[in-house]
Amino acid sequence: MQETGSISIHTENIFPIIKKFLYSDHEIFLRELVSNAVDATQKLKSLAQLGEYQGEAGELKVTVSVDKEKRTITVSDRGIGMTAEEIKKYINQIAFSGATEFVEKYKDKDAAAKDQIIGQFGLGFYSAFMVAKEVEIFSKSYKEGTEAARWVCDGSTEFTLETTEKPERGTDVVLHVAEDSDEFLEEARLRGILEKYCRFLPVEIEFEGNVINQTQPLWTKQPSELTDEDYTKFYQELYPFSEKPLFWIHLNVDYPFNLTGILYFPKVKDELQLQRNKIQLYSRQVFITDEVKDVVPEFLMLLHGVLDSPDIPLNVSRSFLQADANVRKINQYITKKVADKLAEIFRKERSSFEEKWGDINLFVKYGMLSDDKFYDRAKDFGLLQSIAGKFYTFNEYKELVQANQVDKNGQSVLLYTTDEEAQHAYVVAAQERGYDVLNFNGPLDPHFIGLLEQKLEKTTFKRVDADTISKLIEKEETAESVLSDEEKTKLQELFAKAISNEHMHVQVEALAPQDAPVIITLPEFMRRMKDMQRVGSGGGMAMFGSLPDSYTVSVNANNPVAQRVLKADEEAATKLAKQAFDLALLAQGLLKGEALTQFVKRSAELLAAE
Known about the structure:
This protein is α+β, with helices and mostly antiparallel strands. It is built from 19 helices and 22 strands. The protein has four domains: 210 residues, Histidine kinase-like ATPase, C-terminal domain (Heat Shock Protein 90, 2-Layer Sandwich), CATH 3.30.565; 129 residues, Ribosomal Protein S5, domain 2; 90 residues, Rossmann fold; 125 residues, Four Helix Bundle (Hemerythrin (Met), subunit A).
């Protein structure tokens, strides 16, 4: 028996579209053909379990081979096979309607239009024509008494279908590789594709005599079957050069959607961008993509691991996700599971959680900033760390400072440093008043501080060097100045003249006598805007990066230096004022270059004069 005919697609133009436009990456032809072979094998297993196939199944595997001389790639399986009638049904009739409209959408390579056909058409087999000038199918059905069939097509709409000899059940797909696709005749190239897409398929895939896949990857097993060693070993297989993960979450849900997978918390430093695209998405153990931004919340893109779901809609080439209700539900489910896991660790192993905070706080803060629901879940295990190294929940810390760090308006004032060493003098001044100081030196902290001020009732944050210590937390009682109003005016004028800098605004304040003679501060608002701009907040914050710093210079009226400046002659007063100002600059790390050289020289002169 031999038959010739036309494939039922109602147009002469479908194959060029498949070949050139439909698939974004030609290498996926092998994924599609191997996936089809695995499906055929799985169907035979199912029929055997149901008692509908009672023959000898034998060794069930998929074999991929290449013959460079003959220029062929062959994908073989021992699955259910097809009769000639089934080939006509499944191969010749490309499964879609409205083909003319389809062609109209694609003739101009309209990517947006292509995305509209996601998940609608079974065109996987036809991806073979992206690399082949001719494709042959040799197939024999599992059904008794059926003849084997050979189908051949050269990429036009014409095909040939005839009976043939094939001793065993199953299907061989033979690709005669086109001249412009020589790369796919290289063993190394094919092995790379198979290892990328077929590494975890549920049926053994053999290539050049070696099985290249794990048929039962870790996420397909029950957590109760697995040890910590199993999880860390699998992680190292996925990411060979990474440090051990901190912990992991095993996902396994079958309602209202199907989702399995393992998400690992890696040790994350400050490189927010470099860590992304480490989660691999699978569909029934077939690798799809590592771009999972629609499935996984933005802040969890820093996690590593695998997700597997047949319920995530994909386009015809399985290369792009399509946002829909299931994707949103999965996104929300993952967020909840991560929050639940963190809450559980905090509740059961707080000391271990605190030890890991340096590595996981970036996840938590990013999540709280970007997702209100995550904030609501995380507010009970989000931590604040003091410079003494102690950890507190938000409520615990507010209770700690309630007695001493509430200002005259009833606001809790939480003091922080972004660089304990550079701001050491200010930290010490705060500690001498009995104040506690927090450490906020992470890349997200400028934004995180703003979020906490919105969320925590009657709470404000101030950097320790944002003002003089008496003004950081203003109390009802205020220090009295030993200077008259006239003396304060004269002192202000002397310092303004000695400093002579329009960005340095001099004011005279009544501070404690033991406080520094001059204190330079950058207002909290300006500091925070600049910090936000440095870590990239986009939008309106960019303007603060170009503004010159505008500092407040607080001259301590009650420090003995003030009296010395007032009593000295004009030249000596100017020198003393400049020296006190430079000392304040030095404390802020702002004294550099020629100004530093002059300060050292002046210091030597003053020492010699004494």
